[in-house]
Amino acid sequence: MNDVSLFEGITMLSLEQATVLPYLSYRLALDGVKVIRIEHPIYGDPNRMIGENKLGEERFYSYFFPINCEKKAITLNLGTPEGQELLKELVVKLAVDIFATNQLPRNYDKLGISYEVLKQIKTDIIWLGITGFGPNSNEAAYDPILQARSGLMELTGEADGSPQVIGIPLPDMGSSEHAYGQVMKALYKRAVSGAGSRIDIAMMESSLSWLTVPITLASSFGHKISRRGNTHEFFAPVSVYETKDGFVYIALGNDRQWENLTKIPGFESLFQENYLKNKGRIDDIANLNRKLNEITKKYFAAELIRVFNQATIAISKVHTIKEVIADPYVKPLLLHSKDSKTGKEITLAPPPYRTPYLESIKGNLRFPPRFGEHNEEIYGAMLGHSERELKNLKEREII
């Protein structure tokens, strides 16, 4: 088996909506896992109706596109006995390896999707449930709620301003990445032992895991950790500074780098005895940043980047998303997907690494699935139900 086909025989059924689980199944799809997303035949995934209706189709809005390429989509009403029987049929006939859901735990038994039920029909199944606060809690949890409760918002924003949400949904996407690791461990466990697994991921626990320094220093040493804007709690100067054409972020990690900075032509005036050590710079950070900003705003960003790189001082222009997309480092990493129906092509963010499967398809992904797009293929061609049966199931809102 080569790396390209490593996950070729793996099938995932995902009862998913919103972001946290769709991002995980998307990551697995980029590895070559066959992902089939399940949605309710009436309500569907709410994210299908978010963003702009660029293609003129209902339940196919722009916000849905970024993390749903390379998947197939079916509809199924698991609130009915017939829907639950169809689920069992899917698990058995498609030899499903992974079943995942981000439903509230109180719905597991009601929908017939609990680990106990599914492992009876496929003993080696890998079952994954992603919840806000674990399998014993039915508390509703959206990403910003987790950011608030976990303390992430308390750490984000200006020191004299209100708490802010992070610019990306870290509790959602971080939980997805943590679930990804657990799924890989479960696949390895099954490969060596033949045993299935139950995995429970709590978004709160995932969010807390990022608070390595804040929790230790606050709990063990009574240190008050709060938001500090663009500055750093322990290193200086570290912040955003003005230039003639935008902003740059400068980060110094030690006293030697500070010495190098004060030798750069135009920056010599920053040399002061009390700034030689990091503590002295931290103690006078407001004045230091003001002085440094007075100098940087006399330059274009490219000039500063050139001289700071020569001095081995970390610096970057603060890019807009448009500039990120145009970055020569980023451009070859971007993924693309073209809709065979409308001809619309979309550009997608890359995964954290290039997978062999992605290399094999040259980064060109299948377009996100339309609502129930693969019902006939999966229920008909793969499970063997006739057109008449499918029509009957659809009329009764089972699929």
Plain-language structure description:
The protein has 399 residues and is of the alpha/beta class. The protein has 2 domains: 3-209 and 336-395, 3-Layer(aba) Sandwich (Rossmann fold), CATH 3.40.50; 238-319, 2-Layer Sandwich (formyl-coa transferase, domain 3). Helices cover 37% and strands 15% of the residues. A 6-stranded parallel beta sheet has the order 3-2-1-4-5-6, sandwiched between helices. A 3-stranded antiparallel beta sheet has the order 7-8-9. A 3-stranded mixed beta sheet has the order 11-10-12, with no helix packed on it. Strand 10 and strand 11 form a beta hairpin. Helix 1 crosses helix 6. The radius of gyration is 26 Å and the shape is elongated. 32% of the residues are buried. The mean pLDDT is 96.
Low-confidence stretches: none
Radius of gyration (Å): 26 Å
Q: What is the mean pLDDT?
A: 96
End-to-end CA span: 37 Å
Number of separate domains? 2
Please provide the count of β strands: 12
Structural class: alpha/beta
Task: Summarize the structure in short.
With 399 residues, the protein is α/β, with parallel strands linked by helices. Helices cover 37% and strands 15% of the residues. The protein folds into 2 domains: 3-209 and 336-395, Crotonobetainyl-coa:carnitine coa-transferase, domain 1 (Rossmann fold), CATH 3.40.50.10540; 238-319, formyl-coa transferase, domain 3 (2-Layer Sandwich), CATH 3.30.1540.10.
